[in-house]
């Protein structure tokens, strides 16, 4: 009788010890996870409000240097060009529509800065057009632009070339010409332009390349699959190139933008506070070189509501998860 009582007591004791050990392990993992998110939150807040960004003076602001902006006649691209002019850069502007380019050129010249424009359809840019751009940058045969009579010292390049779907659509129902144009504009054009300007930057051991990306590169995005794929290329290419060119004094930065896709996905209803071009570009230059919560190196989420939303979604609930996008649009 006494032996059976002891056996029961021993069993209860070992059961208690087992659950106690399990509780300790769970608390340990929970503490590590909590510490990780606390450190991440502090790091995010330091980037947003404390740490000093990289100054554009390092890249020639107010020194008469030139910046190239591709995709610069509307919204974020136009605002990038105008704010670079405010910071003392001359501008070489590449975009599709010449009337809009001329309008932006006049706005820049009103700021007492120089601007040259060149119409390029990045959806189907020909080899001849790229050779023409190459000659401009290398300062060879520069008379082809007529009033271009000064040396181009390219110090920074901003790629804002962005072609997107007009509406959510299944991949097999999408216009194949539009898909090919997206790949041409969002991938090939960016790559070709960087290839043209990098040699000059390497010679000077100084340069800045900013590739404007999209949150589509961070999440799976059904019904925008080609666009999301091209923006994933922009992200990975930028990060890889950044390591290659770091030793040459060239900073390559990939910045997340929310503009092109925001109005087309259901997640927009969860986060209606989309940045204006002025707000977004101001934050982009004001936090240059800071990650601001971005999960990868050489990447930035400069607009602070987007930074906070990205942090919250990574910790708790993701409004941009593919299932939420699908259900919000009524596909499932």
UniProtKB/TrEMBL annotation:
Coiled-coil features, chain-numbered ranges: none
InterPro entries in alphabetical order: NAD(P)-bd_dom_sf, Sc_DH/Rdtase_CS, SDR_fam
Recorded superkingdom: Eukaryota
Transmembrane segments: 20-39, 208-229, 249-267
Keywords, sorted A to Z: Fatty acid biosynthesis, Fatty acid metabolism, Lipid biosynthesis, Lipid metabolism, Membrane, NADP, Oxidoreductase, Transmembrane, Transmembrane helix
GO BP of this protein: fatty acid elongation
Gene Ontology MF annotations: oxidoreductase activity
Tagged with keyword NADP: yes
Pfam families noted in UniProt: adh_short
Any one GO CC term of the record: endoplasmic reticulum
Pathway: Lipid metabolism; fatty acid biosynthesis
Keyword Transmembrane helix attributed: yes
PANTHER family assigned: HYDROXYSTEROID DEHYDROGENASE-LIKE PROTEIN 1, VERY-LONG-CHAIN 3-OXOOACYL-COA REDUCTASE
Protein name from the UniProt record: NAD(P)-binding protein
Organism: Coemansia reversa (strain ATCC 12441 / NRRL 1564)
């Amino acid at each position: 009788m006494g032996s059976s009582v002891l056996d029961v007591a021993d069993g209860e004791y070992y059961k208690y010890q087992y659950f106690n050990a399990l509780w300790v392990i769970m608390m340990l993992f929970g503490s590590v996870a909590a510490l990780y998110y606390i450190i991440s939150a502090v790091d995010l807040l330091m980037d947003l409000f404390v740490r000093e960004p990289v100054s554009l003076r390092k890249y020639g602001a107010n020194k008469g240097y030139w910046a190239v902006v591709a995709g610069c006649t509307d919204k974020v691209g136009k605002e990038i060009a105008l704010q670079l002019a405010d910071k003392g850069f001359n501008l070489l502007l590449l975009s599709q529509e010449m009337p809009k380019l001329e309008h932006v050129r006049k706005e820049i010249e009103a700021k007492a800065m120089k601007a040259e424009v060149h119409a390029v359809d990045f959806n189907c840019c020909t080899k001849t057009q790229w050779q023409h751009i190459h000659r401009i940058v290398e300062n060879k045969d520069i008379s082809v632009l007529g009033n271009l009579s000064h040396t181009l010292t390219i110090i920074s390049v901003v790629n804002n070339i962005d072609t997107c779907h007009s509406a959510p659509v299944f991949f097999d129902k999408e216009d194949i010409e539009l898909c090919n144009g997206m790949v041409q504009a969002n991938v090939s054009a960016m790559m070709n332009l960087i290839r043209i300007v990098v040699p000059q930057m390497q010679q000077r051991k100084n340069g800045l390349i900013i590739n404007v990306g999209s949150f589509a590169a961070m999440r799976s995005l059904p019904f925008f699959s080609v666009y999301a794929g091209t923006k994933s290329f922009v992200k990975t290419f930028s990060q890889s190139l950044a390591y290659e060119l770091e030793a040459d004094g060239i900073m390559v930065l990939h910045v997340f933008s929310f503009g092109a896709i925001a109005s087309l996905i259901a997640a927009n209803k969860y986060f209606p506070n989309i940045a204006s071009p002025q707000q977004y570009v101001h934050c982009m230059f004001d936090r240059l070189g800071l990650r601001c919560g971005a999960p990868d190196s050489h990447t930035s989420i400069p607009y602070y509501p987007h930074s906070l939303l990205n942090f919250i979604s990574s910790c708790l609930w993701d409004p941009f998860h593919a299932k939420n996008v699908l259900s919000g649009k009524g596909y499932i």
